[in-house]
UniProtKB/TrEMBL annotation:
<dbReference type="GO" id="GO:0019853">
    <property type="term" value="P:L-ascorbic acid biosynthetic process"/>
</dbReference>
<dbReference type="InterPro" id="IPR013658">
    <property type="entry name" value="SGL"/>
</dbReference>
<feature type="active site" description="Proton donor/acceptor">
    <location>
        <position position="201"/>
    </location>
</feature>
<dbReference type="GO" id="GO:0004341">
    <property type="term" value="F:gluconolactonase activity"/>
</dbReference>
<feature type="binding site">
    <location>
        <position position="103"/>
    </location>
    <ligand>
        <name>substrate</name>
    </ligand>
</feature>
<keyword id="KW-0479">Metal-binding</keyword>
<protein>
    <recommendedName>
        <fullName>SMP-30/Gluconolactonase/LRE-like region domain-containing protein</fullName>
    </recommendedName>
</protein>
<feature type="binding site">
    <location>
        <position position="20"/>
    </location>
    <ligand>
        <name>a divalent metal cation</name>
    </ligand>
</feature>
<feature type="binding site">
    <location>
        <position position="105"/>
    </location>
    <ligand>
        <name>substrate</name>
    </ligand>
</feature>
<dbReference type="Pfam" id="PF08450">
    <property type="entry name" value="SGL"/>
</dbReference>
<dbReference type="InterPro" id="IPR011042">
    <property type="entry name" value="6-blade_b-propeller_TolB-like"/>
</dbReference>
<feature type="domain" description="SMP-30/Gluconolactonase/LRE-like region">
    <location>
        <begin position="18"/>
        <end position="261"/>
    </location>
</feature>
<keyword id="KW-0862">Zinc</keyword>
<feature type="binding site">
    <location>
        <position position="151"/>
    </location>
    <ligand>
        <name>a divalent metal cation</name>
    </ligand>
</feature>
<comment type="similarity">
    <text>Belongs to the SMP-30/CGR1 family.</text>
</comment>
<dbReference type="GO" id="GO:0005509">
    <property type="term" value="F:calcium ion binding"/>
</dbReference>
<feature type="binding site">
    <location>
        <position position="201"/>
    </location>
    <ligand>
        <name>a divalent metal cation</name>
    </ligand>
</feature>
Length: 303
């Protein structure tokens, strides 16, 4: 398929310090995202062009849909739920209470509705982080150890592979994935990031099984074939630090891109005045949907 992209549009000039973790609510046509540094959960409506900001008391790494008015978050101190109507935050579990310098970073739900999210320490280079999975029964399981900066995660459309980024390694690792058990095994490097092109950050996947990866410090989104390791598309983004992306819109063909303005010099901010904004790219390929957390036996009142 010949992939076409057009109309790279700034849809929200948020000037976020560190916009991250975008996820799409297909039913409500809403984009959830977080500003990690500013401790904000944000809900953007493309339909009404409004962005609701919920201020919280600790840094948020990522957000995933759960119930109509309940989302799950991975934060500094573990997994939480939040009722967006009351803004009540409820703690679920902290797998790292002894690691004071660690916080949760990127994460998503798998096709079975488990919430996977990983941690990083302050510097993101000391292999002090891990990748965890919050199972449907609310039990937390460590999946990968000795992680520097846990970042992009995605599942193949046929649900047989998990793709994972530990940013400083400059590569994408593929695991064999069992959707029934959540077990991952046989890691192998499938994409090696080029030098002087930024670092791999967040990512998403389309229905053709190709990965779309954000370049931290590289001002772009790239599309890759993980079967061959080949980069097949590069899209410039008018921001130095491109953090993540997700497919949304009525047909899941709009790629929403988050960016940051933290650590930028005055000259860099002049060059990229819309850094920290949310961008949208129209494509002709359909993305895989954002999966919601699934817990059939426990109601929202328990979270």
């Amino acid at each position: 398929m010949n992939i076409l992209v057009s109309n790279i549009e700034l849809v929200l000039d948020a000037k976020a310090s560190l916009a991250e973790g975008p996820s799409w609510n297909e039913k409500k046509q809403l984009l959830y995202w977080v500003d990690i540094v500013e401790k904000q959960l944000c809900i953007f409506s493309p339909t009404s062009n409004t962005n609701r900001v919920i201020a919280l008391n600790q840094q948020i790494g990522c957000v995933v849909p759960y119930l109509d008015d309940v989302l799950l978050l991975a934060m500094e101190n573990g997994f939480y739920s939040i009722n967006v109507e009351t803004e009540k935050l409820t703690h679920i579990f902290d797998p790292e209470p002894h690691l004071f310098k660690n916080r949760f970073n990127d994460g998503k739900c798998d096709p079975a509705g488990r919430f996977w999210a990983g941690t990083t320490d302050t510097y993101g280079i000391n292999a002090a982080g891990s990748l965890y999975c919050l199972n449907n029964n609310l039990k937390v399981e460590k999946k990968v150890s000795h992680v520097n900066t846990s970042n992009g995660i995605a599942w193949s459309p046929d649900h047989t592979y998990l793709y994972y980024i530990d940013t400083p390694t400059k590569k994408v690792v593929r695991f064999h994935y069992d959707i029934c058990s959540g077990v991952i095994r046989n890691p192998s490097d499938v994409i090696i990031f080029p030098e002087n092109d930024g670092l791999p950050d967040g990512m998403t996947i389309d229905e053709e099984g190709c990965l779309w990866i954000a370049h931290w410090g590289g001002s772009k989104i790239t599309r890759w074939n993980p079967s061959t390791g080949e980069q097949i598309l590069s899209i410039p983004i008018p921001a130095l630090y491109v953090t993540s992306c997700t497919f949304g819109g009525p047909n899941l063909t709009d790629l929403y891109v988050t960016t940051a303005r933290t650590r930028m010099t005055d000259d860099e901010l002049k060059q990229y005045p819309h850094a920290g904004g949310i961008f949208r790219i129209q494509t002709n390929v359909k993305g895989c949907p954002t999966h919601s957390f699934c817990n059939n036996n426990i109601g929202a009142e328990t979270l």
